[in-house]
């Protein structure tokens, strides 16, 4: 007995002595007890809603953090998942592994043998938004189950009652990388600290922060065979080098995201206001139309900018980084907001661009295609897009979509989009009086506002009740290079050193091309190497900054086109900072459109017109 206590002390000691903290010490075998009792059949049920029928909300991570008890349970549940044996179906390794590597079947859900060199996730596909919905629901259901268990470990009485109530209202948080942030940076601080203090059932302890990274336990190089992931012992963001000794550089990530925050906000605002067709909105396949952007392309930007060579940069490695699920909850929320505005927008059948673990490229996908491996009954049935169209069956809602008696949900969503993503948008900035009344609330907000508040803007930007929006359209083969890459758009001078580009003051925005690593690319024999994807970089905010500096006087093409021809340039770089000269298939043009902004409504877009056929490489 004494020996056992001594051993426990030693184990504890080595955990707490680790520089980045260890797991939470429950003072008992909480992990193995939970693992023994965890469900053995993995039907994605969603979370049952309690009596009054209103689903609990998925909150922004900084809002969830204000709810101490729920936040504590969330951190402890992630900690338990991450310290669960990697062979368990509900372990971090297995749940993350559904998305991409190690390309193993999950819960024995199999497809054609030739497709098993892929994960289950769907990209460049009409199923991109809907496949990730049950995926997140499964993740949420597992964490919810763990929070229920941990709540019962608190002392009986009012303390336990509080935690049980907190566990019942728990839903996974999202990370809003587009809104003007409520903290100093676009990135929540809680994602960037290696350790975190939690007041668990066995008292306050400083543990490894499960939102910071995932430490492979152990790293299995054969499962993650592309360099450098075969040597990284833990997930990396902006890796400091390509060896096992690499450390994440979250400060660089945060600075780069802050520099692009207003560009990303404008992209999202444009997407909500100018994209009404589901096929265009849902995925980044270039469709020969004027609608170059998509929720998937915006999503790719975050993958590229959070990873920058680390796990998030590559499709098949990304889900191991805990930031992945926060990011995808945000994407699911954007999808839900868009659905409120476009209730009739839905899936039209299309052939799959790429293979997944259970689908062969070229197979027709439609709203009844099984979203594998997410079972929804015990008879072998799976969730399909039609059953995943609403969030209610999964037992959650977002603050803007929850509705209620007498609530006009469309106007709630419209107001939220205007307030969260529209305050720095050109549509609201061109009206100077309205602009002047705004007050900045953070560093990032300051930067966005400084675009236009220096010298004030002329009154005549709005004529006949409309102004001109300017957009850079980018299209390129997804596999033009053998790895993910960035296309950066600059207006004005910039440092020739590629590592500075994400931080350049004259960077207007970036397009991030999110692909697999070479081994995964090569294993997909049916995939179309010619597939072209597209995205946008909004230009109007940068033009307004030029106007406020006096180097441009109007948004009319007579002045803007010569100004852009002289000052607009692009550059291509790999995540490691290597510059790339010519990229075959890359095409970058500039379009403009007349836009109206009725008070309290969303902007109304007119027809796009090509203004510059081909932007010059800088
Ligand atoms: Cu993703």
TrEMBL record:
Location of the Tyrosinase copper-binding domain: 123-140, 321-332
InterPro entries assigned to the protein according to its UniProt record, in alphabetical order: Di-copper_centre_dom_sf, Tyrosinase/Hemocyanin, Tyrosinase_C, Tyrosinase_Cu-bd
SUPFAM superfamilies: Di-copper centre-containing domain
Keyword flag Oxidoreductase: yes
GO molecular function (one): monooxygenase activity
Pfam families registered for this protein in UniProt: Tyrosinase, Tyrosinase_C
Signal peptide: 1-18
Cofactor: Cu(2+)
Name of this chain's protein: Tyrosinase copper-binding domain-containing protein
Lineage: Eukaryota, Fungi, Dikarya, Ascomycota, Pezizomycotina
